[in-house]
User: Which sequence fits this backbone?
């Protein structure tokens, strides 16, 4: 078993190069299944979700060559099976993108129910509704999803809920469908735009990604031959922005799209931090104790739920009492028990949590309950006095590349230790 040992407090200072977005990359890889040819993807984050995505593609018949740690060439000319490996697909949530892509390319797929962070109920009814509207039949038996279609046909689909996953999955399925598909009430996250841009580079005809109506004109075929670079990770950038505030440090984050960070920037300024927006880099610094603030998580362009725990660390240390209303997930406050072990005073009730700010946190053994909670504990450990031991690193490794190295470079005293 491995743990991260963080000795604090430290003020984080220096530069961080932000990696490619996990949530874009885990969709771009299955999207390559729609291509009858070869393509290269660059700026891939080197994280465990990507390693597993590659294994799933290889089992389906793709040939993958690693050009470097962050670049792969994928040949999806030959797909050899429509059964995705159940053990691998159950390891993370985004494995469900194989369904949309394989329905589009092969008209058939058998896949395990997706796994991923336990953030409360994670239904996929909107995905299934979209596939069925396009003409597929979908059934669920003993944890396996069977989806089949003779030929998908374009149609209009109204999403009852703004869902990132359903928007991308239905978009994937519609790219090679006959006719035009309209997705109404679509999600607008940067990674949705990234997937649409990637597919359009390969010959798809998708318009309106990034707005709440996406129009997909079906095409006969996607060609390969192009190189695509994954969009910078909004959530990794936001994690370091909030780490700068929590530790009263000064960080310059390079390789980010500051437009994607506006909701975080606004809250940082509200709590008394400073932000210098340079377009493709952002500097965040804070010289004083943050002030209280109220947060409500919302779909993009609102404050992202995936930065809620990291913001929770800032508010734990703020002057005054703050509230967070989590509007996306039912069970995203498990991390507050861990922060309370470190001296925070947080009361979580259902989808709300109340943060009575304390002057400082102290080190303690804590457990990462999900991916972003794990990142929040690293930030908390850096601000805290004494030694924090963080367990359950498999969550963190799913989504943060070299987290300890990136934190060490900006002054954190952090080690990965094998027990
Ligand atoms: C994606 C992100 C995740 C982030 C979330 C919200 C990836 C791989 N993961 O997850 O990190 O926290 O967006 O920004 O990109 N819902 C339904 N029915 C559905 C689908 C979703 O009711 O068919 C509900 C969910 O339970 C949730 C809400 O819609 O309450 C949003 O979920 P969704 O946007 O689909 O999240 P994911 O795509 O799973």
Assistant:
């Amino acid at each position: 078993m491995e743990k991260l040992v963080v000795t604090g407090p430290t003020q984080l200072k220096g530069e961080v190069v932000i990696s490619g977005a996990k949530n874009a990359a885990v969709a771009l890889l299955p999207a390559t299944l729609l291509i009858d040819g070869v393509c290269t993807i660059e700026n891939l984050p080197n994280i465990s979700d990507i390693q597993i995505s590659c294994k799933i593609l290889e089992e389906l018949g793709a040939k993958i060559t690693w050009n470097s740690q962050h670049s792969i060439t994928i040949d999806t000319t030959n797909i050899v099976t429509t059964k995705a490996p159940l053990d691998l697909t159950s390891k993370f949530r985004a494995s469900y993108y194989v369904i949309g892509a394989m329905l589009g390319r092969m008209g058939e797929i058998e896949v395990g129910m997706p796994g991923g962070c336990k953030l409360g109920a994670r239904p996929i009814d909107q995905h299934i509704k979209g596939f069925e509207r396009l003409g597929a039949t979908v059934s669920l038996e003993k944890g396996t999803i069977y989806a089949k279609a003779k030929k998908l046909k374009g149609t209009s689909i109204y999403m009852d809920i703004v869902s990132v996953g359903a928007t991308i999955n239905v978009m994937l399925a519609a790219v090679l469908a006959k006719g035009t598909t309209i997705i109404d009430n679509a999600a607008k996250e940067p990674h949705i735009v990234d997937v649409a841009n990637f597919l359009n580079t390969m010959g798809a005809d998708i318009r309106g990604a990034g707005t709440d109506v996406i129009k997909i004109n079906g095409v006969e075929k996607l060609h390969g031959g192009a190189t695509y670079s994954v969009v910078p990770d909004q959530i990794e950038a936001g994690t370091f922005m909030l780490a700068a505030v929590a530790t009263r440090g000064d960080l310059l984050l390079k390789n980010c799209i500051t437009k994607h960070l506006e909701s975080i920037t606004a809250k940082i300024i509200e709590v008394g931090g400073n932000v210098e927006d340079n377009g493709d880099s952002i500097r965040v610094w804070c010289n004083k104790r943050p002030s209280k603030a109220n947060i409500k998580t919302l779909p993009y362009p609102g404050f992202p739920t995936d930065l809620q725990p990291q913001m929770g660390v800032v508010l734990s240390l703020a002057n005054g009492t703050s509230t967070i209303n989590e509007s996306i997930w039912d069970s995203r406050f498990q991390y507050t028990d861990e922060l309370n072990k470190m001296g925070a005073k947080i009361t979580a009730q259902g989808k709300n949590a109340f943060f009575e700010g304390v002057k400082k946190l102290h080190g303690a053994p804590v457990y990462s309950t999900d991916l972003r909670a794990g990142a929040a504990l690293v930030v908390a450990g850096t601000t805290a006095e004494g030694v924090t031991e963080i367990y359950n690193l498999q969550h963190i490794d799913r989504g943060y590349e070299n987290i300890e190295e990136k934190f060490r470079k900006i002054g954190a005293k952090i080690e990965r230790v094998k027990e």
About this structure: Residues 23, 26, 93-94, 121-127, 161, 163-166, 187, 305-306, 328-329 surround uridine-diphosphate-N-acetylglucosamine (CB under 6 Å). The radius of gyration is 21 Å. The CA atoms of residues 206 and 216 lie 4 Å apart. The first helix runs from residue 22 to 31.
